[in-house]
Write a structure and sequence with these properties.
Chains A, B: Pfam families: Rrf2. Two copies of one chain form a homodimer. The first copy, chain A, is mainly α. Chain A folds into two domains: 117 residues, Orthogonal Bundle (Arc Repressor Mutant, subunit A), CATH 1.10.10; 38 residues, no CATH class. Chain A contains six helices and two strands; from the N terminus they run αααββααα. In chain A, strand 1 and strand 2 form a beta hairpin. The radius of gyration of chain A is 18 Å and the shape is elongated. The first copy, chain A, starts with 5 loop residues before the first helix and ends in a 27-residue tail after the last helix. The C terminus of chain A is likely disordered. Chains A and B meet through helix 1, helix 4 and helix 5 of A and helix 1, helix 4 and helix 5 of B. Chain B binds a DNA duplex through helix 3.
DNA sequence: TTCAAATTGGACCGAATTGGTTCTATTTGT
DNA sequence: ACAAATAGAACCAATTCGGTCCAATTTGAA
């Protein structure tokens, strides 16, 4: 059912939390507590987020993690890709998989590209900054079209 | 890495093939052969596509499967949902999961909705009909912005 | 200088999901 | 009556995933 791995899921939650927090620097422990993400898990995620450059770390006592960029400049797509690798919906678009055997009927290939692009774009259009803006009170900050938080679409289960 | 299950992957390939084929009715065997999808697998997929109403079946000798709708009227999203259930990126949006524990910091919830919507929309904007139109010769049919098949974006592996 | 608080990196494991097969029943044309 | 199809379900191996744990390193402070 096309779902994000928990890793990416948590990742976004964590980044969102860090973006919202007034404190610049956050220690793993605090983040875990605040987000309810299991500490070990949070740690793992934070580490890889550092590796991919979305976070910076200060080691040693009083250490912690800091965002390297303005949350508004970090897209959800980036976080997802940082944690689960490139967003590619189908195996046929994966690197090195040139020999899918069905080359002839594979105009589809290019269309798959379209699908991938579409999704990536969708994910790239939402920033962590936006995610961090509190919604219940409904203050959309730097957002233009304001229908999304109202519509809770049926989400069509099957047909 | 956010990927479609092989089920949905194959599903789209199969639907695309059926849309392209001049023959109205297709038998499992032929479909499997043409698409390179393992026969048993194809069979399984076809069955569920019938159950969800995207295909109709004729049983018995000379039987086979038929699309119930104009391919242009069937979206990729439908096929995906038919095969892997509702498109919901994160567990927190799944039905009945109201007790995510972190209700307070969960303005995020509504933002997840946005993400889900974005993706679903992306997938809903591409029809099987479009998928079926041959691309290599680059005849974009009912499409407006024509940069997607040209741009093979870096697909940013990690950072 | 020594200790404690942090991050780092990796190995590791159980469980769930996935991709795929197989078998039996049923339907239908010839 | 037989063969060609679909229907439906159970079943299995293997990968992936969510999660934990541990040893190493860095750094501030007593």
């Amino acid at each position: 059912m096309i779902r994000l791995s928990k890793l990416a899921d948590y990742g976004i939650v964590i980044m969102t939390h860090m973006a919202r927090g007034r404190a610049r620097q956050h220690a793993t422990h605090d983040i875990a507590e605040a987000t309810q993400v299991p500490a070990a898990m949070a740690s793992k995620i934070l580490k890889t987020l550092v590796r991919t450059g979305l976070l910076a770390s200060n080691r040693g006592a009083n250490g912690g993690y800091v965002m390297t960029r303005d949350p508004a400049m970090i897209t959800v797509a980036e976080v997802v890709e940082a944690l689960e690798g490139p967003i590619a919906l189908t195996s046929c678009t994966e690197e090195g998989e040139t020999d899918c055997g069905i080359e002839q009927l594979c105009p589809t290939r290019t269309n798959w590209q379209r699908i991938n692009d579409a999704i990536r774009t969708a994910l790239a259009e939402i920033s962590i900054g936006e995610m961090a803006t509190a919604i219940p009170s409904a203050f959309m900050v730097e957002d233009d079209n304001s229908d999304h938080q109202v519509s809770r679409p049926p989400m069509a289960k099957l047909a």
